[in-house]
Specification:
Length: 215
Amino acid sequence: MNNIQIDIVSDIACPWCAIGYARLERAIELLGPEYEIAVKWHAFELNPSHSGQGEPILPALARKYGRSEDEMRANQSQMMSIAKDLGLNFNKLQERFTCNTFDAHRLVTWAGQHGQQTAMKQALFDAYFGMGLDVSDQKVLLSCVETVGLSPDQAKQVLESDQFKTEVREEEATYQKAGVSSVPAFIINNKYLISGAQEPDTFVQALKEISAESD
């Protein structure tokens, strides 16, 4: 058995993070049962200073990257096509609004204590990219919690307290100090870094090589 630990640094507001994980899932399927792969998610905020009312995503991205809205629309359309081929719901990708993701990261950390971290992350991706919902809104967050079969009452207690605030901030600082400046970032066995939403075959090759080196 080949045991591999994958730590994924990502943001809920990052479409390539959802695509990257879906491609990793394909790679894991291709690797087969002789590979035992454990995944853990870590927080990263693309827009940590975001507060107040959200802004339509296309003009926000155009301003951030110094591009036109048409260019951003074409870029988002390409991502929607890629996502569809992977079975992801990106129907509202171009209609969503910017939002703060800090509380969502706190819930992902909390869900990890209940063995539902990946499911929680995927529910948040679906809410934001698929339904265009505000993943900083407590009602939306609690709906995602219910979707993965966890307790909305417990989650509400987390959101209305300071639970996991320190953990998320420390996690973000740790990976920033380690040099992670863009996401998704896949850290394999605490040693190797794979940056970006690589194709499944690229993941397969890399994981096989890393596993062989560890033997």
